[in-house]
Each structure stands twice: as structure tokens, then as C-alpha cells.
Amino acid sequence: MKDRLKQIMDEAMAQIDSSDKLDKLNEIKVSFLGKKGELTSILKSMKDVAPEDRPKVGQMVNDARSKIEEHLEEKKKAFEQALREEKMKAETIDVTLPGQRIPEGHRHPNTMTLEEVENIFIGMGYEVVEGPEIERDYYNFEALNIPADHPAKDEQDTFYITQDILLRTQTSSVQVHEMEKGRLPIRMIAPGRVFRSDEVDATHSPTFHQIEGLVVDKNITFSDLKGTLQEFAKRLFGEDTKVKFRPHHFQFTEPSAEMDVTCFKCGGKGCRFCKGEGWVEILGCGMVHPHVLEMSGIDPEEYTGFAFGVGLERIALFKYEIDDMRLLYENDTRFLKQF
Q1: I want to staple 298 with a disulfide (CB 3.0 to 4.6 A). Which of 92, 104, 259, 293 is the partner?
Q2: In angstroms, what CA-CA distances link 212 with 117, 118, 170, 192, 337?
Q3: In what helix (H) or strand (E) does residue 88 lie, and over which residues does it extend?
Q4: Strands laid side by side in the 279-288 sheet
Q5: Residue 298 and residue 290: Cα distance in Å, rounded?
Q6: Where does Mg(2+) bind (predicted)?
Q7: How many CB atoms lie within 10 A of CB 288?
Q8: What is the H or E stretch that residue 288 is in?
Q9: DSSP string of 46-71, one letter each residue
Q10: Do 306 and 215 form a contact (C-beta atoms < 8 A)?
């Protein structure tokens, strides 16, 4: 038995010394010390040893196990030390080399324009309100005085999820939600993404952004509307900017108008940018239709209001003199880093 233990231990030591991988050590450990290992098989055969010799043989087996485990641990530490040194050598930093510049991003033209518009209206006492992009047909159309089968719906043909649920075509639906809360007066703008089934070209996209504004209070007149939007235009495009209102028709406002501003490229003299007219159309606006107020639970005899809506991309295109809306969405860093 003593000779057999010595043979097992010598063989284990030799295999440990010749191993060249950490995984190999695990195989050796299992081979000699595992449940079906060499030493374990000797312990299982102890029943064949004379009773008076069993303590001595057991001690010999335990000594052999301890020596094999010790040698395995020493070899394992040697492997780990070698791996650590190799890793440290590979990760050595040469402090004399120039640093690697990490490219930094910056705000998108849409984001910069939106923040500027929000700051202007917040400075005039307005609140920024957001609403759901997936909206009910009632809030997107009917509550804005556009009943079912009305021709105005064709102009905003959109993406329907069900017959009554759609992707909103305008953020005016947020205004209806606010009016239904009954917390008057209201001074708010509602920026957000909207959806229409438009063909993609230089000035159209099936998804874009709008900023809708709403004021509801006692004794609000068209003069308040004109003064507010004139101040907005001056702060956005410069103090010399002039505005012009042209009669128009919107279902949810009466009277309604479209607002032009003097071309900020030529100052109103006429150029290629404004097609020689000296003016560029910027937004639509009007006094809130009495029926819209009524449907939201507001007495039109006591309260009046005005509303306006402007495309965020439209402002960005004008402000930064971009001639193709698609450039805003192509994520070409050569274009975006100009701003």
C-alpha cells in the first residue's frame, strides 16, 4: 500500500510540474483527488486492510492528499502570477504618447430651435405642456371642430391604429386636454412630434414636430394675439423683424390668419430665399372658435382665447438657412456639426 501511495504521489507531482495551463491543473486535481480519483479509490479499499493497520494507512493517504493539494496550489499561484504580469505588460500606458480625443456631440438644430422658442414663451409667462402621441380621434379632430367625414380631415390624412385611435396629426389635441381640466386662465405651448401620411421631399415628412400655443382668459382679443406673435417674431429673428397677417380659414379658430415675417436674409427687400417677395410664411393662428370652447366645458360668453401653431422644422430651416428638411433626419455628422 505504501509503495502504491508513493507511485500515485510521484505521478501526480510529475503531471503538475509538466502542466502548462491552468485548466490542466483542474484535470489533475479531479484525476487524483476527485470522487473517482486515485487516492479516493484507495480509501474505498480500506475494508481490505487489517484493522490494526487502517489508522496508519489513513494517515498516509491524508499526507499524500495534502502534499498533492499543496503542490497544486503553488503551481496555480505561479500560473496566476505569470498571467498577471503578462496582462500588466500588455496594459502598460505610455504617458509620453499624445492623448486620444473623444469626439463630443452637441445639440441638434431642432433641439436648439425648440429650446429658444420655449425660452421665449416661458419668458412671457407660458407653460410648456406635453401630451400623448397616440391619440383618440375625438381629441385630434372632433373636439377641434372637425367632425367625422369633414373635408378638412383629408388634408391631415394620418396613420390610424383603430377606427378611433390614431397617431396625432397636430399637438392641438394637448390644448383640448388642458381646457377640459377647467383650470383657467390658460397660457401654454405644446411642442411635440406629429404624424401625417405625406411624401418625403425637401419640405415634407411623414413625421415632424409642431409647437401649438393657446391662451384662454377673459377679454382676450385679436390684438393680444397680434402683439404676442409680433414679440415672439422679434425675439426669434431680430428686433427689426416685421409681421403681416393674412386672412385664412382653420376649423378650430374664427377669425383665422396666417402670419408672415420679413425675410431675415434680405430684410424684406426680396431675394432668392423669399422668392423675391420680401416675406416668408411662418405660422397659422386665430381666435379659438366658440364651439371648441363649449365642447371643452368653457363658457364662450365669459372666456375667449387665441391659438397658433408653427412647425419646428420650418423655423429651424429658416433660422439656419437649410434648404432641405431631409438633412435634419439623415444623421450626417458632416452636416450636423456645422451648428
Answers
A1: 293
A2: 11, 11, 8, 9, 29
A3: helix 54-90
A4: 127-128, 186-195, 207-217, 304-311, 279-288, 253-262, 243-250
A5: 9
A6: 254
A7: 26
A8: strand 279-288
A9: GGGS-GGGHHHHHHHHHHHHHHHHHH
A10: yes
DSSP 98: P
**Rounded CA gap, 274 and 281, in Å?**
9
Instruction: Enter the C-alpha cell of residue 274.
Output: 423669399
Task: Calculate the alpha carbon distances from 292 to 23, 112, 142 in Å.
Answer: 77, 33, 9
- CA distance linking residue 330 with residue 335, whole number of Å: 9
Q: What is the DSSP letter of 216?
A: E
* Contact residues for 238 (Cβ-Cβ < 8 A; gap 6+): 264
Distances (CA, A) of 259 to 190, 225, 255, 279: 19, 11, 13, 10
- Rounded distance, CA 338 to CA 327, Å? 12
pLDDT at 2 over 70: no
Give me 19's grid cell.
Answer: 502542466
Q: Determine if residue 69 is labeled as part of a ligand binding site.
A: no
Integer Cα distance of 21 and 26 in angstroms? 9
Task: State the residue for C-alpha cell 390644448.
Answer: 175
49: amino acid identity, one letter? V
β strands within the chain, DSSP E: 127-128, 134-136, 165-167, 186-195, 207-217, 243-250, 253-262, 279-288, 304-311
- β-pairing, 134-136 vs 127-128, is unpaired
DSSP 160: B
Q: How many residues does the chain have?
A: 339
Instruction: Give dist(CA 325, CA 313) in Å, integer.
Output: 7
Over the chain, what is the mean pLDDT?
85
Question: Is the confidence at residue 271, as pLDDT, over 70?
Answer: yes
User: In the chain, pLDDT over 90 holds for what percent of residues?
Assistant: 41
What would the grid cell of residue 223 be? 390684438
